[in-house]
## 1
Amino acid sequence: MAQNNINSLDDLRLFAKDFCAQLKPGTVVALVGPLGAGKTTLVQMIALELGITARVTSPTFALVKEYEVPNKARKISRMYHIDLYRLDRIDDDLGFEEYFADIDSVVFVEWAEKAKHILPASAVWLEILVKNNSKNGVRSRFFGNKKNGS
């Protein structure tokens, strides 16, 4: 399990750049962490790395936002940003599987722990653990690994 200590927004930007360089079409990224930890900020920084110029905001009320990736950067056509914060229960019939099945896109799911039962086994899990707040921003650690069906 890889671990990165994030002590500033610049560190987060570097992590986003490195992570984005590894993104492939069809990747589903499961984001977990407490409220305000930086999940949306990370997605915003990755969107910038993909060349997305549209304003990326949390889809808390819309549930899903779609962004076109210019010039199919890294052969990725679209980025979906899903936020499950407001949902108490995730039903299979909400249609999220359609986004996960889009092999030309990348999908970021905030509060992914609520949807373990519908996420693909190949999802990459990033957990943001907030240690403390500092003058330079949130100090976080990110773990990325493949979920083993647990």
## 2
Amino acid sequence: MPKIPINKTPMPKTTPAWWPDAGQVICALADMPVNKARGFTLYGDNDEKLELIIWRRGDAFTGFVNQCPHMGLPLETFPDRFLSADGDALICSAHGAHFRFDGACFSGPCQGQNLRRVALSVRDGRIYLAANQP
């Protein structure tokens, strides 16, 4: 039986039922440290929520739905603990899958699969959901 992190339940491995409106602010640029990854939760009106990961490398940003393609679990056991020790990969804490900056799994049980990308835009000192989602 797979080990499920405390207070984390598997999410269905499908497209999220609710998606925030394009242009929604995720965070201030100053809240996103260079060469780090952070988790964010966006909320809708009827208890809908979407858990995201934003990974920053220098001035480049990439965003993903916080859901491993292997079993649908969130990647981290502890808040904002996503990256490998060298900062080169996101790691799923449940089964050790490793993901590149583009979201592709290169090691672990879901090798060859991808995290679901979230298009971002950066302007006026903030990070937003972009209008065109993949």
